[in-house]
Specification:
Length: about 450
């Protein structure tokens, strides 16, 4: 690399690092809007949600006319591309007789999830609810004739689960004036986009907010051609209809929280509310050839990593066209859920790490008990916090006696959180001004073991 380019890259990295540090140092600034903070209270505590991408695309499941199409299952109409007149008849085949809303909600509960977000209309334009705006919806256009959103809303209400709706506000490949379908309708720039927004998207969002009880959030996506003014029209509908409903970060104007890129976990703590939407395999909508599920251990690592940085994890499943969530993905979720049943105290309502070096940067200042620099390896452990408590989730056993970073705070005791060793004490000593914990080798739960460290005062003082 040429020296000037190298200098530019180095300065850019430095600036980004400093920006990250500034965000870390300024969570109070991010909390300056009391109404927004009140809306966000449940979301900040919930940490873990179930995303569901379900629609007509679960029928082709990655194949069109006998040929496998690469890419995301729900993008098959675009990727092929399939003309509207050929895609639309899928509705006549959609008959998910095995759909059971109560079972889906129970799965989310067993998984330890605290909210559900389901696609009410994805980019293909098909409404998975009984819309009066267009007959292209699950009740009027399919033999199934049932409003799955209504059934899910009822099941969520009876099982005390929050429910939010994904709504593709910009892309609508079924509509002549919606964004995205250039193969049937020509270039987006020539479309009467506001006709689509006012004629379909805005009234459908209003329907979602008036027919299904309390809506936890609206998850807008891919804000193409979304000017500030257009985005504000949606925001006004949400705020004026259900003031407590959250708006995600992809409307096209500032939402209540930040949505990261798909499957992107930021490297550092961020004081704003944020959420990582993520796949459990490699697609959102069902594909019959994608069975590369993340393991329960990978999911727990990502969840703890996200919570230690102040975020939420919205993990997706793609139900099949018969209404069944692929059983293998259900097993993964339930196994991770069993870990959460024992260790959830370190997750729900927990704050981010008070330190930060463990997130992957090689520390130049922290030394181990022999005075050697501690080169933390990303993935070894994560910190989360509550008043008077520090939780250390270990993913592997520490290779040397585990030393907490130097701090003024006085530790009073430590113990394991869950499992067979639940509440068993951990030996704590002080050496060279550092608190040392004697963690068992191997760690009691090979997937991840949580040590609780109790200390004087509410917050760690460095
Ligand atoms: O295009 C969509 C995609 O199909 C999926 O819905 C994801 C979920 O975050 N959002 C868009 C891509 O970022």
């Amino acid at each position: 690399m040429r020296p000037r380019l190298l200098l530019f890259v180095a300065l850019t990295c430095f600036a980004l690092t400093m920006l990250g540090r500034a965000q870390q140092a300024a969570p109070a600034a991010a909390k300056s809007d009391p109404a927004k903070e009140a809306r966000l209270a449940w979301f900040r505590d919930a940490k873990y949600g179930l995303f569901i991408h379900w629609g007509l695309y679960s029928i082709p499941a990655g194949e069109w006319k006998g040929r496998r199409r690469l890419g995301l299952g729900e993008w098959i109409m675009f990727r092929t591309p399939v003309p509207v007149k050929e895609y639309e008849p899928l509705a006549k085949q959609f008959n998910p007789v095995k759909f059971n809303a109560a079972e889906w909600v129970k799965l989310a509960k067993d998984a330890g999830m605290r909210y559900i977000v389901i696609t009410s209309k994805h980019h293909d334009g098909f409404a998975m609810f009984h819309s009066k705006v267009t007959p292209y919806n699950i009740v009027d256009a399919t033999p199934f004739k049932r409003d799955v959103l209504k059934e899910l809303a009822d099941a969520c209400a009876s099982q005390n689960m929050r429910l939010g709706f994904y709504y593709s506000q910009s892309q609508d490949w079924h509509e002549a004036n919606g964004a995205g379908n250039t193969w049937d309708f020509g270039p987006d720039e020539k479309k009467d986009y506001d006709q689509y927004l006012r004629g379909k998207a805005e009234p459908q969002v209003k329907e979602l907010l008036t027919s299904y009880g309390p809506v936890a959030l609206i998850w807008f996506d891919t804000p193409r051609m979304m000017t500030e003014e257009r985005a504000q029209r949606f925001a006004t509908i949400v705020r004026s209809t259900q003031p407590n409903t959250l708006i995600d970060g992809r409307l096209g104007t500032e939402g209540d929280y930040v949505s990261t890129g798909d499957n992107v976990i930021p490297p550092e703590v961020n004081g704003q509310a944020w959420e990582t939407p993520a796949t459990i395999n490699h697609t959102w909508g069902y594909r019959n050839d994608d069975t590369d599920w993340k393991s329960p251990g990978q999911i727990i690592f990502k969840l703890v990593d996200i919570v230690s940085k102040g975020g939420n994890y919205l993990l997706n499943v793609g139900p099949m066209s018969d209404g069944v969530i692929p059983p293998a993905s259900q097993d993964v979720l339930r196994t991770a859920g069993r870990w959460l049943q024992m260790n959830g105290e370190a997750i729900y309502g927990a704050g981010p790490t008070p330190f930060g070096d463990e997130l992957g940067e090689i520390s130049r200042t922290l030394k181990d008990v022999r005075g050697e620099p501690l080169g933390f390896v990303q993935g070894d452990f994560r910190y989360t916090t509550k008043p008077g408590k520090l939780y250390i989730t270990f993913f592997t056993e520490p290779r040397v006696p585990f030393a907490l970073p130097a701090m003024k705070t006085i530790v009073t005791r430590a113990y394991y959180l869950g499992g067979d060793r639940g509440a068993a004490p951990i030996k704590v000593r002080t050496e060279g001004g550092r608190t040392i914990l004697d963690i068992e080798r191997p760690i009691p739960d090979p997937m991840a073991s949580v040590a609780v460290v109790e200390f004087q005062g509410d917050r760690i003082q460095r």
